[in-house]
Design goal:
It is a single chain. About 80% of the residues lie in helices and about 0% in strands. The protein contains 19 helices and no strands.
């Protein structure tokens, strides 16, 4: 019986985490296609940048609107709409007759990514038992990492299928269109998952909510959790202004700071610009690209470390250890550039160390904390605010990293990221409570006290 419940829980969590896989797939697929698109449409540097960043504009729109849709229509229906957006974007990119319609399709995909980046952790958090919630929500981050690795492999296979002329005419279309396969898989799979029991209770369907809780927990635990949900809902106002009252005000500050600083401590500078950083340090082009693959592998391996320990060691302890490791690595990377000590393997070793520390802490944990610290009635909208801030952070880093590397130089750029990480470490120590092992309703009551 217990094994059956665990299998059912893992199955619906894995389906929810497919939103993360599509997030990773959509954001990374452009890396293989952009060079061929540039030749096909004779893109200027500005239009080339727009082809890439248009999706991030969609992400901000998706993150802003998904919470409202999820609170009104339900988590499951909102996820189904997201899957449809992914599929529509992929087919649009495959068939786009001109650059304008291609950009429209990219923006539609971006809306899907932004929505999924809020909806998937929200859904997984609301169906997960307290003692497993951390590791299960972390599967979403693993989905992102696997999506990136899968699409790199798919892009490679497509590019190998024909010569330069074929890739300029057709190859990039197949790269971008290939996303339709996981998108349609996600869409079909969503019809086999239940609605969030907390959303059902919020909307008065307590019988159905209890039935779903009993499929995920023992009857005794399901009844206890259901009573806690009902008690918490009675005390909630369900208004956005509730987030800015004493107690919940701290929660929204924590959510926004974690979302922003997970991006401005340097991870996307490494992920987006690693080949350029390594080439500037004297590595050859092929060597730099191979080491970028190594960065992806390390990112995957250490995400499993977070999944294993997040519900044992706790969120706060993992964050403090991981961010301290990032600080040390950023200090050394900046120093290697400052003292021109780039010979040998040390730069690569500390870049990999930084990625490992991030992947085991600041990669998955903000998704977990943001999905569990808000009241049920406004959780969707509150998460939308935080995830929108996260995407603004992504835009800032992707836009300004080349400027910082050029104007400040690599050493001061990495030391600036280090200063951000130091602030986040102190903030974590002083402001973030440990939520490990608590139900969502117990966390909510903790703010009120």
């Amino acid at each position: 019986m217990e094994a059956h419940k665990n299998y059912y829980l893992f199955k619906i969590t894995a389906i929810g985490a497919l939103g993360g896989l599509l997030f990773g797939y959509d954001t990374a697929v452009i890396s293989g296609a952009i060079g061929f698109m540039e030749s096909k449409f004779s893109l200027t540097p500005a239009l080339k940048g727009w082809a890439v960043s248009s999706a991030i504009v969609g992400c901000v729109i998706g993150a802003l609107t998904a919470g409202y849709v999820a609170d009104r229509m339900g988590r499951k229906k909102a996820l189904i709409i997201t899957a449809l957006l992914f599929a529509l974007s992929a087919i649009g990119c495959l068939l786009a007759p001109n650059f304008t319609l291609l950009v429209v399709a990219r923006i539609i995909g971006g809306v899907g990514v932004g929505a999924a980046s809020m909806l998937s952790p929200l859904y997984i958090s609301e169906i997960s038992p307290a003692e497993k919630r951390g590791s299960l929500v972390s599967l979403y981050q693993l989905g992102i990492v696997l999506g990136i690795i899968i699409v790199y492999f798919c892009n490679y296979l497509v590019a190998r299928s024909g010569g330069e002329a074929w890739n300029i005419e057709y190859g990039w279309r197949y790269m971008l269109g290939s996303e339709a396969v996981p998108a349609l898989l996600f869409l079909v799979a969503l019809f086999f998952v239940p609605e969030s029991p907390r959303w059902l209770s919020k909307n008065g369907d307590n019988v159905k909510a209890l039935k779903i809780l009993e499929r995920l927990n023992t009857r005794e635990k399901a009844l206890k959790t259901h009573q806690e949900i009902q008690m918490a809902l009675k005390q909630e106002k369900g208004k956005l202004s509730e987030l800015f009252e004493k107690g919940f005000r701290t929660a929204i500050i924590i959510g926004v700071v974690l979302a922003l600083f997970s991006q401005i401590t340097g991870i996307n500078a490494i992920m987006y610009y690693a080949p350029e950083i390594l080439k500037s340090a004297g590595f050859g082009v092929d060597s730099a690209l191979m080491q970028t693959v190594l960065i992806g592998v390390i990112n995957s391996i250490f995400t499993f470390v977070a999944i294993k320990y997040i519900d044992k060691a706790g969120r706060k302890k993992l964050l403090l250890w991981g961010i301290m490791g990032m600080i040390i690595c950023l200090l050394v990377i900046g120093s290697l550039y400052h003292f021109n000590a780039l010979q040998g393997p040390w730069l690569l070793i500390f870049i990999l160390g930084f990625v490992a520390c991030f992947a085991s802490s600041l990669g998955p944990i903000p998704w977990v904390i943001i999905s569990e610290i808000f009241p049920t009635k406004v959780r969707g909208v509150a998460m939308s605010i935080c995830v929108m801030v996260l995407w603004v952070g992504v835009m800032l880093i992707s836009q300004f990293t080349p400027v910082l590397l050029s104007d400040l130089g690599p050493s001061y750029t990495f030391w600036l990221f280090m200063a951000n990480a130091i602030f986040l470490w102190i903030f974590t120590l002083k402001m973030i409570p440990e939520t490990n092992g608590q139900t969502l309703e117990e966390i909510e009551m903790g703010w009120k006290k």
